């Protein structure tokens, strides 16, 4: 058990250090003059504050980027992954120490999500702008559906287990591989993970270190793919990072006191996400019209 935890921490530190070094190296090589704005910092702080409470952040970040009009649609997946790397690493360290989940399951699910993210980033970083718009529009609708399930209480019955074995173990690890790949186009893993682990009989609190730990590995792994392709906005990602660190540090001590009073915020998130989904799909439709007019 101790070996699994050591492996997990080792992988977590290794991939995050690699992503940060790659980001710094690329910024120096390209001599990027992009700067973070206060809006980028606020987006990072608010979304990561909510993320720490289990509401998630990817759908919200995607929605706010789209409604704001910056960065360009094709740069959104890479920007939100690169900008979320350090905050997710911080959140992973905080939750690993606070909630004890069976170490082999935790390590296996976290590493499988990273493998899925590596494949997903390689695919998404090569997609044309319109396909990214379509995929992100659909991803936002799916995310809104999961948020709606949570807000209405339409969730599967949960158990009390802090670990899984046999076929349940295999299903959990395999599904997390798929969620890692889907994270690259903006489908957050929080709500799907809650549903999956609940169906498999795990205690709801056990989902937190698995979800956040998965983010701590899959996000930097995905970031490496986007950094290699150059499909991200440096300044915006930097703002997300700064704001994300602040939001996580502020939220973590408050989890036990206000974690049960976020129902109204969930409904607001649903509205924002659906508006952004409509805008994203409309953009994809508009871009398709000139192409269709060519004989």
What's the helix count? Answer: 12
Helix/strand structural class: mainly alpha
Instruction: Give the number of domains.
Output: 1
Number of strands: 0
What is the element string, with H for helices and E for strands?
A: HHHHHHHHHHHH
Q: Specify the helix fraction band.
A: over 70%
Q: What Rg is obtained from the alpha carbons, in whole angstroms? A: 18 Å
Strand-residue proportion:
under 5%
What gross morphology would you assign? Answer: globular
Major sheet characteristics: none
Mean pLDDT: 78
* First and last CA, distance: 64 Å
Could you name the ranges where pLDDT drops below 50 across 5 or more consecutive residues?
Answer: 291-295
Notes on the structure:
By secondary structure, the chain is an all-alpha fold. The protein has one domain (2-288). 77% of the residues lie in helices and 0% in strands. The protein contains twelve helices and no strands. It has helices at residues 2-30, 38-52, 58-68, 76-98, 103-124, 129-152, 166-182, 190-199, 207-229, 234-251, 255-258, 263-293. Helix 3 (58-68) crosses helix 12 and helix 7 runs antiparallel to helix 8 (190-199). The longest helix is centred in the last third of the chain and has 31 residues, at 263-293. The radius of gyration is 18 Å and the shape is globular. The termini are far apart. The model is unreliable at 291-295 (pLDDT under 50).
């Amino acid at each position: 058990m101790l070996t699994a935890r050591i492996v997990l921490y080792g992988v977590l530190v290794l991939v995050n250090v690699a992503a940060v070094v790659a980001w710094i190296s690329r910024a120096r090589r390209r001599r990027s003059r992009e700067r973070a704005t206060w809006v980028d910092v606020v987006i990072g702080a608010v979304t990561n504050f909510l993320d720490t409470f289990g509401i998630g952040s990817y759908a919200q970040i995607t929605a706010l980027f789209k409604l704001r009009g910056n960065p360009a649609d094709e740069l959104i997946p890479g920007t939100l992954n690169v900008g979320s790397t350090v905050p997710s690493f911080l959140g992973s360290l905080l939750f690993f120490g606070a909630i004890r989940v069976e170490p082999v399951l935790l390590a296996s699910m976290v590493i499988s999500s990273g493998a899925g993210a590596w494949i997903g980033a390689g695919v998404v970083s090569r997609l044309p702008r319109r396909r990214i718009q379509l995929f992100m529009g659909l991803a936002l609708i799916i995310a809104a559906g999961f948020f709606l399930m949570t807000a209405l209480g339409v969730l599967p019955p949960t158990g009390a287990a802090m670990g899984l074995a046999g076929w349940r173990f295999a299903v959990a690890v395999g599904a997390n591989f798929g969620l890692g790949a889907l994270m690259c186009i903006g489908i957050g893993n929080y709500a799907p993970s809650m549903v999956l682990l609940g169906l498999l009989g795990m205690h709801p609190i056990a989902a937190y270190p698995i979800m956040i730990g998965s983010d701590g590995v899959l996000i930097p792994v995905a970031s490496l793919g986007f950094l290699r392709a150059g499909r991200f906005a440096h300044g915006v990602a930097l703002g997300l990072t700064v704001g994300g660190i602040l939001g996580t540090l502020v939220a973590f001590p408050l989890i036990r006191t206000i974690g049960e009073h976020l129902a109204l915020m969930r409904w607001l998130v649903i509205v924002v996400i659906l508006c952004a989904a409509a805008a994203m799909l409309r953009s994809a439709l508009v871009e398709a019209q000139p192409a269709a007019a060519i004989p």
